[in-house]
Amino acid sequence: MFKEYAKNRIILFDGAMGTSIQQYEINEDIWQGNGGCSEWLNHAAPQIVQEIHEQYFEAGADVVETNTFGGTELVMSEYGLEDRTYELNLLGAQIARKAADKYGKFAAGSMGPGTKLPSLAQISYDDLYTMYHSQAEALLEGGVDLFIIETCQDLLQIKSALNAVFDVKTQKNSDLPVMVSITVEQNGTMLMGTDIAAAVTLLREYPLFSIGLNCSTGPDLMHNTIHTLAESYDGYISCIPNAGLPQNIGGQMVYSMTPERLGVIVDELIKEFPIAVIGGCCGTTPEHIKALRPVADKNKPKSPLAKEYKGEASSLYTATQLIQEPAPALIGERANANGSKAFREMLLAEDFEGMLAVAKEQEESGAHFIDACVAYAGRDENADMKKFMTMLNKTLTAPVVIDSTEPDVVLTALKSFAGKPVINSINFEDGGEKLHQILRAVKQHPSAVIALTIDEDGMAMTAEKKFEIAERIYNVFTKEYGLNPNDLIFDPLTFSIGSGDTTLVDAAIQTNKAIKMIKEQLKGAKTVLGLSNISFGLSKQSRPILNSVFLHDAVENGLDMAIVHASKVLPDSMISDEDKKYCKDLLAGKEGALNAFIEYFSKKEGVVQQEEKTDLPPDEMLKNLIKKGRKAGLEDTLKKLMSQMRPIEIINNIMLDTMKEIGELFGAGKMLLPFVLQSAETMKAAVSILEPHMEKGDTETRGRVVLATVKGDVHDIGKNLVDIILSNNGYEVYNLGIKVSVEEMIEKAKEINADAIGMSGLLVKSTNIMRDNINEINRQGMNKRILLGGAALTEKFVNNDCIPIMPGMVNYCRDAFDALKVLSGESEGSTAPEKTYSDRTAKPKEVKKPVLETPPKPPFTGTKIVENINVDDILEYMNKLALFSHRWGYSKKGMPDYEYEALIKDTVIPEFDETLAEAKEAGILELGIKYGYYYCNSDGQDLIVYKDNTDEELTRFTFPRQDIANGVSLSDYFQPVTAGVKDVVGFHVVTVGNKAAEYCQQLFKENKYKKYYQFHGFFTELAEAMAEYAHKMIRVELGTDGKDAKSAHGIISLGYSGRRYSFGYPACPDLAQNSQLDSFLDFSEIGVTLTESHEMVSEYTTCAIVVHNSTAEYYTT
């Protein structure tokens, strides 16, 4: 009946039950010691509950929710009412039914989240399921028209509730609709950190009436989440918001959004998204519902907007596509007791933390999915799987592959894993008994499934037999169980072609043929292979090469996923043509190929990479050396070339063209910055060799450029990179250094008759200085091209504030090669990426209202210097992902995961080790940490810092407040003066030292560009690691480290209570407060000084104010 009514109309739910109950004066005679338990009123004051329902129907609601939100034994036990849970649910449903019948409308059975989170192992899936099953039975008996599982915070909780409800429906032969409504925090995720796409990945497989949002925020903050939901989910959406965000006024929670405002915003959402259900949650009243009635009447639900579903899995936190671009998706194989001796030994030693670290390491290395197998003879696989899966569930962001052939073990894992996993595997070996048990479990616990091409006769050997079994499984999966074929993954199994078994000579051919047949004929199905099986029995040196060639062939035939150790797969470009020939002959099953393969690779040492060609013409050889950044053979090559052409011709006709090509490769993402710098070093070395042989007239230049970091800014890495690229592309560069005034730039530009002036800066304030500099350059009538670069620049700022000053002469340069293109006339510069700071006009994002906490006790007041700092201890807190990808430029840029992992393992990690060893050996690490604790109080936007344990004011920091309603100031996280109790604040300053900066400059002057760039990045991240280390030390000493993540990786990812804020950033943007902090922390004791513009020297230094308050967040002002 409800389904029919709901067709092609917007359904209007009621408003808040709790808000309405609070309007009644209910005395203790009614509560009988159960105050706060609204469900108790179903028994003690049913007339009040019915009156509230009727008020909402009078206001225009189509549906009221039963007063059973907390109606599980879990919640009722908190009031000693667990034995009356069924009764209270039954009464709640009957009261709503009676009111609905009076108005000819509907009653929805409300089922809330409870008070314990199964994903944190606070309660088991089975216990929750039992409670929800009982509640659903009572609501159904009481006559509800539909179920709404609402205010959901944990995916595992949703699974238990849904499975309980659907089981009750089956048992009672009911077809009532079921809705799921999630509550999302202001940061866009559920309480457990789940993003909305991950929730949809799990829930889309259940036959739901709708998925939507309720509670937490008002409709004004739901737009982005509903947008993501609409993109991901191909069904109808519900929107049941609060009356805005709650405010604490006079000790009462007040919801301030008016009914009219609620109606306007919900109307806008309905017009944009496929919303079919609206209503109100906390703070909404019959007046709010009355305002929504005309909104529901004048609109019709839009058709779902979701993109085509192609197969996904998810963790508790995020969703992952089964098909990755470029293919294949990688399944990490090391967390497997049958495949990894080290992992098995951890299992036998009960070292579950070590097992977890293995899984986490694979995720960090780029695996899209993590295989988890704990089967081992003599152990309780069920118990081991439950424990390990619970740990993986909380820790991994990548989905898990549950690797077991035992249905009971698979079910245990499914009850412990919140997301949508992949199950490995099913087959017909036993006639299908286990297959059917697992697929029945999949119906209740949505999962992708790997199916092996095995039947009652064993493993299929031919492509035709592999496909026959695959088609048989496909039909059972899709037709018998109604499961989505996009979630079915076939492993057609491959066998070793290195064993000498003549029946397996064509194993690779049969496997690839089967992959192609499956992809072409079984719509939606995916394919996967355990890659290394193909080379089993062959030499250690040859296996990675054969595996890699086979992988490339399989991907061309349609392979989607591979179970493989990514670092053992070589990029196609790293395999020589000769190596490929022997591999392809063997894969093709050619006669004599195995013996030829074995003989060929037996003569090679290690994994063979493509040999350098030494018989190239000298011009091609020079290009090759520059591209590869190699200097060996450079002098001989240039000597040969000088016998054919003048040195200036070599530079102009070969070397500059090669650097231009390198620039194009970099711009296209086909060459990473570290390799560009290696090429620049070779270019510089080549010029040095040629210079003594040049004639006087050969010193022509493409142009003269003045470069400088603007006044007040000490950051020069970006400017120096521009210097490197321009100077190696024929330009004369005059690098004036850091903190350069516009007068100095103008003077030098006039002196050398410069063609262009380039300005750089990292700080936001540097952009304003650039604008002022352009004004002065223009005022002096200098018609010079202006190049602007730096992290703080935005397109809007350059277009609106800089270009109008000198139209046609000012250019934004994203990187050094942009500067090159501008100077050569090839472009006018790049479009700057939009930033979330600086000149943006959008209002700051709201953050949660600070909650004041009992101040911790400091171990001392005043300051201390940390002695004997061990750099290895600091390195635990270094963000190597940021170092490698951002600071060093080894970004993935579309390369396959296995290729990127090989790059990290074979190139980047060794370079990191070399950099660290050189820094230690050269004695350039002057690590310094100084920190302190002070008593304090807030006073409006000010933070008063006291001298020692007195009331004497030492200093007063003023922090801006967000320019929005209920905006936050940093001072709000501390106890106010009026509280009568002093709070505690921490401060620290850390530095890598001045020798580090001097060493970088020395490398730059010596034209060791890559080392210069890498040492700069290393020291920058080392300073950040020192700040993280100091913050951890402060939390430990204050006793606020109880919620700290157990791993350094977790700490780096902000897995702790409290925050540290550096001056010059959004929450405390006044850089002058560095000097204010220096006045009592005394930076000079660890060798740190300040410039006139309050920047710290050396550059590899940072300081911070440490806020212990656990509700502290980062925000913009």
Short description:
By secondary structure, this protein is of the alpha/beta class.
Q: In words, what does this structure look like?
A:
This protein has 5 domains: 1-298, Homocysteine-binding-like domain (TIM Barrel, Alpha-Beta Barrel), CATH 3.20.20; 312-600, TIM Barrel; 613-693, Orthogonal Bundle (Methyltransferase, Methionine Synthase (B12-binding Domains), Chain A, domain 1); 704-824, Cobalamin-binding domain (Rossmann fold, 3-Layer(aba) Sandwich); 862-1107, Vitamin B12-dependent methionine synthase, activation domain (Cobalamin-dependent Methionine Synthase, domain 1). The chain contains 39 helices and 36 strands. The protein has an 8-stranded parallel sheet with strand order 1-10-7-6-5-4-3-2. Strands 13-14-15-16-17-20-21-22 form an 8-stranded parallel barrel, surrounded by 6 helices. Strands 28, 29, 30, 31, 32, 33 and 36 form a 7-stranded antiparallel sheet that branches. β8 and β9 (252-255) form a beta hairpin. It is globular. Residues 605-612 and 830-842 have low confidence and may be disordered.
